[in-house]
Design goal:
By secondary structure, this protein is mainly alpha-helical. The chain has 23 helices and five strands. The longest helix has 24 residues, at 171-194.
Amino acid sequence: MLAVSKAAFLTLCLCMGLVTTTTKAEVNLPEMGVPSHTTISPSDEKRLGRAFMRAVSMQTHLFNDQPSLFYLQKLGNQLSQHTSPKHDFFFFMVQDPSINAFAGPGGYVGINTGLVTTAEQEAELAAVLAHEITHVTQRHIARGIEHANESTWPSVGAIVAALLLGGKLDTAVTSGAILTAAASKMQHTINYTRRFECEADRIGMRVLFESGFDPTAMPRFFSRMQHRTLDFNDPSMALLRTHPVTEERIADSQNRARFYPSKPAQINDEFSLIKARVTVITAATRHDVLRQFRQQWLHGNQNPAVRYGYGMALIHNHQQVKAIAIFQNLCKEFPSQPLFKLSLAEAQQAAHINSELKTLEAAQKQFPDYNPLQLAYAESLLEHDKPEQSRQVLLNFEEGNKFNAQYHLLLSEAQGRTNRLIEAYQSRAQGFIILNDLERAVMQLEQAYNLAAHKPRLRHKIGEKIKQLRREIAIISEL
């Protein structure tokens, strides 16, 4: 049984950036942790990961744009191929304009959309991901929990007192007291993790270099971000200024990068396109983002990413006809870019032009490995009342979507509409499992179990899965 005190886990999260309060101006640079192979078993770490992701999904707005997630997973996989020991990773995005990235237990690595829109080059985004991947492969969280469990918590009394006095004190005073009381404990843990910063930075930079990226992107991005960090003038924050990303750490990173052979800066068109796409989708106001891309367009900037962003902004401002013309031109000029075909279909669909199904059918044949196109085509078939075709399309690329919740939920709809109800409930359950909503997964499997009364083998298999999930729910509830 996993023995992790809530105080220990909370302390660790506070010190490693897993518990944050985000504002538009907030910048949380990724921090390094501690390698371990002895504290928490892989199964326990996976359970912690489920609890972690459940908290993330409940407290944040997950960004579920398929092209963006497909790109992130591909970039993450490129980096993780150069790590040791090998580990399964699940990369996700949180829709938040602040600059943040974090690694949770069990291989969950998340970034805020603000990181994508702020990075100037793909290598900068890759540098941050390399840090977070190192968190996982070196099992920083596991070792941190061990340390937090072994340490005492002398400031709990002070925190409780501050909370009890909260009704009588000014809120600012109370908050300051809580922060000051917690600071000594956090400082102890931060000092502990600092001893491993050098190793974590070194491993992350090596992963970055071996993956084909310029290692100087790491100190360059950190240095630029340092100028945007919060100015902690509040006296109660004074003890928390020992943030791991310091001038010394940046200098060490710069010195370390000099030992690697120089690599020319690589311009990845896909990164630029995804950055433009995320910028439009997450814009605070659709009119402002349209103005932003239109001005670049009018000033003669014919960069494909600018044109693509302009087209996306036109869709979001209900000017689909103009967007269609832009995407058609981009498709002609860059026939090997699947995202242009997908966005052309998105514009056609938004304009209620039935040709989007034809566009997607041709595109998914041309780009059979581009999952976002396959999903869009299957969804369009459902919208055109062709569920059996949709089901066949989805089954043909099941292998690459084992961990894609939207895929399983879409397959469930196709199966349900073709009267394959047991399969539909099972697929829907799998989607909820990926989303770490185990209670809803059990409910779906119970429906499948009831329908499988005349299929004893299948019924037994479903029943065993239900028991397994209930055990997982019970264990997670104790964390």
